Amino acid sequence: MTDYPDFLDSTALLADGPALRRRLDRDGYLFLRGLLPAEAIRAVRARLLKKAAAGGWLNPAAPIGAGIANQAAACKDPEDRYMRVFRTLWRDEELHRLRTLPVVLDLFSRIFGEPALAHPMFVQRNIFPQAGDFDFTTGIHQDRVHIGGATSYAMWVPIGDCPREKGALAVAAGSHRDGVLDTKVGTGAGGMDIAVPIPGTWVTGSFNAGDVLIFSDVTVHKALPNRTREIRMSFDARYQPASQPIADVNMVPYAGCGTWDEVYATWERPDGQYYWQTLALDVVPLDRSYYDRRDAMAFEMAERGDRQARDAILRIIQRDKDAAKRQRAERLLERLDG
Predict the structure, then answer these.
(1) Which of 14, 146, 164, 303 has the smallest CB count inside 10 Å?
(2) CA pair distance 213, 205, nearest whole angstrom
(3) How remote is the C-alpha of 174 from its chain's centroid?
(4) Total Cβ atoms within 10 A of residue 126
(5) Can you tell me the distance from the alpha carbon of 64 to that of 83, in angstroms, rounded to the nearest whole number?
């Protein structure tokens, strides 16, 4: 997989919003060098690594700044042992501020031709090295089924340098033209994998601190395996024109991270908090049909003892509002793990 062609570099077009929009419409992605200040990225990396070390994720025999994983602690979202450490990382004040820097909002406003909204909810990922007893990376998926609302665009940012072998992101260029693809239960984002052949052409590349990848919510993407000894940290924030509808799930913190009041209670400065509350946003319900279908398939698989349903079952337990569904999922998880 690491022999995929390189991303097309769009950095030279950075000041030309219409040109960036045309390329984004054509390819489904933009790769931009040095959009974010490298020193700010490295400072956030240092903060998150200290929290990861406190949670037992790092090798105690190596310097914290090296980010060398404690492979005995390898875990993934949505496992409980992952979430206990993850929520301390996700709440980090300086991490949140990276996604709303003026250089970022100005870029998306140029692309959209109108003011841009940064979704309050965003994703922060921590991928342990691939090993014999741990072989996980972010699988092939699209964001639309999880994000809903109007068309949105992700900005994927590695927190530090990220060569291909550390688990850089790859996108299927041109795949956005095929719209939302059918899904099945799997270990990908949201417990879903794509169930049909992938359109487009896979491309990837190595990232330096401050480089970003932007792509639409129907562009198919995945991460490459992390073949280093380090934990690969990244975040992906999402943006859309502020005038267009946003789904309700994007207005709350990441699942398992508490309320906004609880998140902001850990911050040192009040500026930047609740920034969306002054905007006249059109908040709409998420189309949950994709999740309903996932859940029905996961229950059927779990009843058969198929452990491929485990991640989806965990997500139902953690995040579904229906108490009866959660109870059924808990019973099935006991059977799967028993």
Answers:
(1) 303
(2) 10
(3) 20
(4) 22
(5) 20
User: Omega before 253 cis (within 30°)?
Assistant: no
Q: Which residues of 13-36 are buried (b: 16+ CB within 10 A; e: fewer)?
A: bbeebeebbebbeebbbbbbbebb
Cα–Cα dist 191/77, whole Å = 10
d(CA 187, CA 170): 17
- pLDDT, one tens digit per residue, over 67-93 is 999 999 999 998 999 999 999 999 999
Percentage of the chain modeled with pLDDT above 70: 99
What torsion, rounded to 10 degrees, do the Cα atoms 143, 145, 146, 148 define?
Answer: 100
Q: CA–CA separation, 328 vs 325, rounded Å?
A: 5
Secondary structure class of 294 (helix, strand, coil) = helix
Rounded CA gap, 48 and 20, in Å?
Answer: 32
Q: Are strands 123-127 and 232-241 parallel, antiparallel or unpaired?
A: antiparallel
In this structure, what token pair is assigned to residue 2? 């690491």
Residues 141/222, Cβ–Cβ less than 8 Å: yes
- Half-sphere exposure in the Cβ direction for 119 (13 Å, CA): 30
**Of residues 99, 55, 54, 97, the one with CA closest to residue 79:** 55
Instruction: Give per-residue burial for 94-123: e unless 16+ CB within 10 Å, then b.
Output: ebbebbeeeebbebbbbbbeeebbbbbbbb
CA distance 116 to 139: 28
Residue 331 has pLDDT above 60, yes or no: yes
Do β-strands 221-223 and 29-32 pair in parallel, antiparallel, or remain unpaired? unpaired
Mark 219-253 as b/e (b = at least 16 C-beta within 10 Å): bbbbbbbbebebbbbbbbbbbbbbebebbebbeeb
